[in-house]
Design goal:
The chain is of the alpha+beta class and about 270 residues long. The chain has three domains: about 140 residues, Cathepsin D, subunit A, domain 1 (Beta Barrel); about 55 residues, no CATH class; about 45 residues, no CATH class. Helix content is about 10%, strand content about 30%. The chain has five helices and 17 strands. The strands form five sheets. Strands 3, 4, 7, 8 and 14 form a five-stranded mixed β-sheet that branches. Strands 10-11-12-13 form a four-stranded antiparallel β-sheet. It has a three-stranded mixed β-sheet with strand order 1-5-6, with no helix packed on it. A hairpin with a 2-residue loop joins β10 and β11. The N and C termini lie far apart (about 70 Å).
Length: about 270
C-alpha cells in the first residue's frame, strides 16, 4: 500500500474534542479515508502494509482496510471504499483528495462545503465549518444502529444497559427474570437501573390534533386537499403523484393523477371543481 502523507495537526489526538469522536472531518490534506471506530465498517477487505505519516513526522500502521456506508440527511447513502482502520486515531477523516479523484467536484462558500458529481452536478454530500474545521453533515450507517452507545465510551456500557440492549431492549423485569431462571453469563442486575435513551425516544408519541367542530354551510365553502407521492411504482400513464380535493359540505371528492409534483398548482383551480 502506498504511504499516506496527511497535513493534520496534533489537535486530532486531543481528547478535549470528545464531541467530534463520532463525526467525520473533511480533510484536504489526507490522501486516504481513515476511521478509528471498528463498528463503523460494513466489511473489511484486506490487511494492509505500509504506514500513515503525519505532519509531526509520527506514523501509525493501519490495522485493516474496509468499506463504510455514510448516512447523509436528505441524500442517498454514500459508500466509502478503501477506508483505513486506525484505532489510535481520535477522529474520522474523509479525504477530499480521494473524493475529487473519484470524479466529484468540491465547492466551498460561506462556511459551507458541497461535493457534487462532475457529470451531472448532482449533490453528493454536504459539510459545514465548525470550530475552524470542516465537518460532514451525516454519519456512519452502523453508528446510527448503535445509537445507545453515544453517551458512553466504547466498552464502558453499564452491565444493566448492555444486557438490556443485547436482548433487543427487553424490559428490566424480564432481564431479571432471565437471571433468576438460570441464564448463564448474566450478571446481577442492580435495583437502580440506568435509563435507556433509545427506549425513551422510541416511546415518544406525537401530541394528537385538536378536534375541529367547524363545518361548512354551503358547497365549496371549505375544501380539504392532500398531495401524495411519489409512488414507488408509476401508473400505466407514468403518473407518480395523487392529488385529492374533498368538499367539506357535500363530501364530494375529486382525484387527480400527476406525473410531477410541480403539476399540482395547475390542478388547484377551484373553478374547475364547481
Amino acid at each position: 500500500m502506498a504511504q499516506c502523507n496527511i497535513g493534520v495537526n496534533e489537535d486530532l489526538f486531543n481528547a478535549s474534542l470528545a464531541s467530534w469522536k463520532n463525526d467525520w472531518l473533511l480533510d484536504s490534506g489526507a490522501t486516504c479515508h481513515m476511521a478509528h471506530r471498528k463498528d463503523f465498517f460494513e466489511e473489511f477487505t484486506d490487511n494492509v502494509d505500509g504506514a500513515v505519516y503525519f505532519a509531526d513526522q509520527s506514523k501509525i500502521k493501519p490495522s485493516r482496510l474496509g468499506t463504510i456506508r455514510l448516512k447523509l440527511p436528505g441524500l442517498p447513502d454514500f459508500l466509502l471504499h478503501h477506508v483505513l482502520y486506525l484505532p489510535q486515531l481520535k477522529r474520522n477523516l474523509l479525504s477530499l483528495v480521494h473524493i475529487r479523484q473519484q470524479g466529484h467536484s468540491i465547492h466551498m462558500f460561506d462556511g459551507k462545503l458541497e461535493v457534487r458529481k462532475a457529470s451531472d452536478h448532482s449533490l453528493v454530500m454536504r459539510g459545514i465549518e465548525e470550530k475552524r474545521l470542516l465537518k460532514l453533515q451525516g454519519t456512519s450507517a452502523h453508528a446510527q444502529h448503535f445509537s445507545y452507545n453515544s453517551h458512553y465510551e466504547e466498552g464502558t456500557l453499564p452491565s444493566s444497559l448492555l444486557w438490556h440492549a443485547r436482548f433487543g431492549h427487553l424490559n428490566y423485569d424480564s432481564v431479571c427474570l432471565l437471571k433468576k431462571n438460570g441464564v448463564a453469563g448474566l450478571p446481577t442486575i442492580p435495583r437502580k437501573f440506568k435509563q435507556c435513551d433509545a427506549c425513551i425516544l422510541g416511546k415518544h408519541s406525537k401530541q394528537s390534533f385538536y378536534d375541529s367542530h367547524s363545518r361548512a354551510h354551503r358547497k365549496l365553502e371549505l375544501i380539504h386537499s392532500d398531495l401524495c407521492g411519489p409512488m414507488p411504482v408509476p401508473s400505466a400513464n407514468g403518473n407518480k403523484y395523487m392529488m385529492t380535493f374533498i368538499d367539506d359540505y357535500t363530501r364530494m371528492c375529486w382525484v387527480y393523477l400527476l406525473k410531477n409534483k410541480s403539476d399540482a398548482f395547475q390542478n388547484s383551480n377551484i373553478q374547475e371543481l364547481s
